[in-house]
Amino acid sequence: MEIKVVIHGNGIGLLQSAKSNVKLQSNIANRKSQNVAFSVCANTLKGKKLNPGKNLYDVFEEDIVPSGVAELSHLQQQGFTYIKP
Q1: pLDDT, position 85
Q2: Which helix (H) or strand (E) segment is 37 a member of?
Q3: 57 touches 28 (CB < 8 A)
Q4: 3-state secondary structure of 47
Q5: Which of 12, 23, 34, 36 has the maximal Cβ count within 10 Å?
Q6: Domain 4-77 has what CATH class?
């Protein structure tokens, strides 16, 4: 199974909180070790004036997509199912 997490809008709080929360860091690292991909919305970063290296846990340039909503649509067109918690 291939799982991709697209983080945008208020969901960015997960990665902000993980910056100082060891338990969240462990959970995210565990998912990544299981090949769960995380994508972060550039529009959200810009709108919230966030620097991924300073403000977010474990986000790299290659993790950033131009638009989280567009990424969701693109993934659905590829056959992925959208599940919103």
Answers
A1: 75
A2: strand 37-41
A3: yes
A4: helix
A5: 12
A6: alpha beta
Query: What is the domain partition of the chain in residue ranges?
Result: 4-77
Task: Tokens for 9, please give them.
Answer: 């809008």
pTM score above 0.85: yes
What one-letter code names the amino acid at 49?
K
Q: How confident is the model at residue 84 (pLDDT cuts 50, 70, 90)?
A: confident
Give me 10's structure tokens.
């208020």
The whole-angstrom separation of Cα 73 and Cα 61 is 21
Is 82:48 a contact under the CB 8 Å cutoff? Answer: no
- CB environment 1-25: b (16+ within 10 A), e (fewer): eeeeebbbeebbebbeebeeeeebb
pLDDT tens across 15-36, in order? 999 999 999 999 999 999 999 9
